Amino acid sequence: ARLNRSMCERSGGGRHMITAFLAELDTSTRSLTWVNAGHNPPILVRSGGALEHLEDGGLPLGAFTASRYESGCSELRPGDALYIYTDGVIEALDESGAEYGEDRFERQLAALGTTGAAASLSRIFESVDRFAGAAPQYDDITCLVLRVAAAGAKFGAKPS
């Protein structure tokens, strides 16, 4: 709420807004607490394949001084993966003007299974690039992948 009020003071009467996803991960408990301020909801893919959209939050920062924000909390479990992405991923256009879309993105995430974070990121970008073909990129395409190590894995250990 303080960040929103500060942004409202600088937003020219609501003309400039910022979407944001703010999160804190307690690595000792794997508890993720977040606030989504109008950003594309990050997707938490559970190790069993279920998809959860992290929507709790409120309006984009700078929209209204009195905006209220709710926080969400999830426990990350071994094998889970969190995907935080910008709208440029799902709004990427192909040569005919069709969007990559949320459904295609979710299918791509489901297909990744237990793929590691770096390889998952590469496959997402490859999928968007293949879809877009020769169409020019008009927006940033940004994605962050956080994969929770399998039970018993040591932090920083590389898979064999």
Order of helices and strands: HEEEEEEEHHHE
Count the strands?
8
Low-pLDDT segments: none
Strand content: 15-25%
Number of helices: 4
User: What structural category do the secondary elements indicate?
Assistant: alpha+beta
Distance between the termini: 45 Å
Radius of gyration: 17 Å
Principal-axes geometry comes out as: flat
Summarize the helices and strands and which ones pair or pack.
Elements: H1 2-10, E1 20-26, E2 31-37, E3 43-45, E4 51-53, E5 57-58, E6 72-75, E7 81-85, H2 87-90, H3 102-112, H4 117-132, E8 143-147
Parallel strand pairs: 2-5
Antiparallel strand pairs: 1-2, 2-6, 3-4, 3-7, 7-8
Helix pairs in contact: 3-4
Descriptive report:
The protein has helices at 2-10, 87-90, 102-112, 117-132, and strands spanning 20-26, 31-37, 43-45, 51-53, 57-58, 72-75, 81-85, 143-147. It is of the alpha+beta class and 160 residues long. The strands form 2 sheets. Strands 1, 2, 5 and 6 form a 4-stranded mixed beta sheet that branches. It has a 4-stranded antiparallel beta sheet with strand order 4-3-7-8. Helix 3 packs antiparallel against helix 4 (117-132). The longest helix has 16 residues, at 117-132.
Which features characterize this protein?
alpha+beta, 160 residues, 4-stranded antiparallel beta sheet
Short description:
The chain has 160 residues and is α+β, with helices and mostly antiparallel strands. It is 25% helix and 22% strand.
